[in-house]
Amino acid sequence: MQDRFDAIIVGGGLVGQALALALVAHGLDVAVIERSDPEAHLAPEFDGRASAIASSTARMLRKLGLAETFDREGCTIRAIRVTEGLSPRHLHFDSAEAEPAEPLGTMLENRMLRVALLARVRETVGIELVAPADIAAIGRGADRATVTLASGRMLAAPVILGCDGRHSGLRRDAGIRTANWRYDATAIVSMLAHEKPHEHVASELFFPDGPFAQLPMNDLPDGRHRSALVWTVRSSEAEGIKALSARAIAREAEKRMGGFLGRLELLAPASSFPLGLHHAERYWANRLILVGDAAHAIHPIAGQGLNMGLRDVAALAEVLSSSARIGMDLGHPDVARRYERWRRGDNWATAFATDGLVRLFGLPGRLPQEVRSFGLAAVNRMPRLRQAFMRVARGEGGDLPPLLRGELG
User: What is the separation, in whole angstroms, between the first and last Cα of the chain?
Assistant: First the structure.
């Protein structure tokens, strides 16, 4: 006996659950298979990360039922200030200059995204969440794909959607190669309380050992101001920094920020994540389509990683639903190719741009620092160029799927 669905999603993280909601909103029935217990990912100490959700992907998530979470938990980013270290020269992006006139992004704790997505998935008719569950076997035949669980249950669908992350077993088993490399860099992630208000301004300061980002978060209930910290250091230094006391890390962060937010306090233990880049040579195989980190992952220098995955979701939902409406086999290569054509260019361009920024700002020496500082100041005097950069960062460029416009196709 097989339980049949329009699609089977393997991987129930942020991208996998968003994809399930998007497909059901377009009239498809899906199963989501997740190895771990979703409840284990909801604890505040799970990883302490927060994400900058771009305006276009925020519109999609609001359309999928997360509007209340954005309104209650989200902190809007109204401006971004970029500097070479503590140089007074800067590049300033302001939402007042953006078109359309919306925030540049919204900061949300990943935990709150997980809570909201899981609640929506569990209450939405047309989604079956199978978790925790181990997969015993996967079959991708001529007419359907099957997933056999360790429990013996078998699920069948025309296509499997791989949302199983950077180390995707589906990608590996399908023989899809990746272009990939590791940076000599590790991200130190935590949450800060600070003396002065952030005024909804995010700051990215570039130092020789990597960027240092302060990202505005909502104030704490006791009124203390709060920001997320993403501090990139050389990999050899990461463990030493993590071993410092909370007070010592806060003092070092104050020094790096030049004190512009006043006294700092570390609110959560520092976590570390090694950084790398990979991009799959193709996004599909027989009755398999890769989505999000299974297809691509980049340096967090511009905060685009999750947004790229969510843009994949919007495009794939449109491709699969429009194909279903005309009676196409959702596992047909033409369906997968259409999705790949839609997303590969944007994903490659974003990966190339972020990698270029990492290498440009990583050049050591006084002269490169001065050139970068003057370059940022020069761009700051070009309103049209600033607007173009903002449009790209907000995911507003190119052929937008309906969901990124806040609509259903």
Answer: 34
